[in-house]
Specification:
Blueprint (H helix, E strand, L loop, with lengths): L5 H20 L3 E3 L6 E7 L2 E8 L2 E8 L11 H18 L5 E3 L2
Antiparallel strand pairs: 1-5, 2-3, 3-4
């Protein structure tokens, strides 16, 4: 069983939060409550990718190609699955919000 230190969790949290804030706050396409996106974690040509399904089709959201956190036990696949789950949970718990996505 691996034990992760607080610095590893903080680094992952900071990276994830920064990515999400940049995407949501610096965006141009609005998605309202009737067409909420659904996030999925898939392997695209060997790169784990969080994708979002919208009315306009599937869009890449985050490509998890960095190996920086592997020594802490966070492979690209694990990070993809964890963040994708958190994004979907956020959508579920904030049903009346408007979400923005960049292109």
């Amino acid at each position: 069983m691996k034990v992760f230190n607080a610095a590893s969790y903080y680094a992952l949290y900071t990276l994830t939060s920064t990515i999400i804030l940049n995407i949501f706050l610096g965006s141009s396409v609005s998605v309202n409550a009737q067409q909420k996106p659904i996030f999925s974690c898939i392997n695209k040509r060997g790169i784990w990718t969080t994708v979002v399904g919208t009315k306009q089709g599937e869009k890449n959201f985050i490509s998890w190609d960095s190996t920086y956190f592997i020594t802490s036990g966070y492979t690209p696949k694990i990070r993809c699955n964890q963040v994708t789950g958190r994004l979907n949970l956020f959508l579920k718990t904030h049903p009346n919000s408007t979400y923005l996505m960049g292109e």
